[in-house]
Amino acid sequence: MTTAFPARWWHRLDDGRIQCDLCPRDCRLAEGQRGFCFVRQRVGDQMVLTTYGRSSGFCVDPIEKKPLNHFFPGSSVLSFGTAGCNLGCRFCQNWDISKARAVDKLQDAASPEEIARRAVELGCRSVAFTYNDPVIFAEYALDVAEACHARGVQTVAVTAGYIQPAPRREFYSRIDAANIDLKGFTEDFYTRQTLSHLAPVLDTLEFVQHHTGTWLEITTLLIPGHNDGDREIEELSRWILQHLGPDVPLHFTAFHPDYKLTDVPPTPKSTLRRARALALAEGLRFVYTGNVHDQEGDATNCPECRTPLIARDWYEILDYRLTREGCCPGCGYRPPGRFGAEAEHFGARRVPVRLAVRAV
Fold first, then answer.
1. From CA 282, how far away is CA 278, in angstroms rounded?
2. With the C-alpha atoms ordered 62, 65, 69, 71, is the resulting torsion angle positive or negative?
3. Under 8 Å between Cβ of 183 and 221
4. What is the rounded CA–CA span in Å between residue 176 and residue 156?
């Protein structure tokens, strides 16, 4: 059964419709209509969120899987998503959830307080809104974040950053760390492959980096023949350097054929390594590779003296050499991020969990 929760960020139009003000799509809805995301619907004279308190599943993951390499390395995170999405990516790697058009994908139910309580019981340092974009279930995510913070649990958003300025301010005020997808660096790629636009994402990246306390990392999924050219990678890296600074970690990850791009081959490891080299040459200090086995691309090195600081193998922490003060043992450089005095060692496990059903 769908849970209809009063939604925020909308207004009435003169023609009788209501407009959603959450993301740049500005969906205009007549009675009974749903937005592009499918989960925000007009019911009567208001808009409701149909997935509040409902999840497609809960799982305990390593934080590096989000991916976040500079946010309490080795720690565990309680991850969950809902259904739907406000982008239309033809290459979506979680399309069975993000493109869901029915609530039968929403098998678990939990109140914000229940999620926070279980995160503590499970020993998770943080709770992640992931699998589909938390922007579209912002009311639920914000309530979960408030409950988590009351119990000392951190919050993580894995998102495409496609959100309007007003809700964006409130959303990121309660998010401790975010990995934002920068899916490519041309408007043509965004319009053709994601049915969205590049400029709002760049605006979100600048806002999060310069106007919030949220720790930021960026992911770009490299798709052969679509966004993996040297010039685009160089321009993307240069924009990050000039607009966000050299210390925002950038993850280049491998595509695998899925959803509507099944005719495109997987991304070779050599492409990721080439992209990493190009980004480092542009002046970015922390560039990683993902979705492939590449210990060099997993490692965190001191950009000042090249001392290895954190060695990883997939999601396993092999060596953690930061001092208790979070500095390089070789030269005293303090890498940016949120680091514990010691690494945690949750490892590469992925542990599905069920939460007791509570009223929401």
1. 6
2. negative
3. yes
4. 6
Chunked in runs of 10, what are the mean pLDDT values of the chain (360 residues)? 82 98 98 96 96 92 98 97 93 68 61 96 97 96 98 98 98 98 98 97 98 98 97 98 98 92 95 98 98 97 97 96 96 97 92 70
pLDDT at 259: 80
Beta pairing partners, 54: 109
Give the DSSP letter of residue 51: B
Q: What is the tally of helices (H) and strands (E) in the chain?
A: 9, 20
Tokens (6 digits) for 347: 């490892």
- Total-model pTM: 0.95
C-alpha distances out from residue 137 to 21, 23, 325, Å: 13, 11, 37
Which of 44, 37, 49, 43 lies closest to 9, judged by CA? 49
The closest alpha carbon to 137, from 104, 112, 165, belongs to 112
CA distance 154 to 234: 33
* DSSP string covering 168-227: HHHHHTT-SEEEEE---SSHHHIIIIISS-HHHHHHHHHHHHHHS--EEEEEEEE-TTTT
Token pair of 91, please? 């290459």
Contacts of 132 (CB under 8 A, 6+ apart): 56, 81, 82, 83, 84, 85, 94, 97, 98
Q: What confidence score (pLDDT) does residue 95 get?
A: 62
DSSP 71-137: BSTT-EEEEEE-S--S---TT-TTHHHHT--SGGG--EE--HHHHHHHHHHTT-SEEEE-SS-GGGG
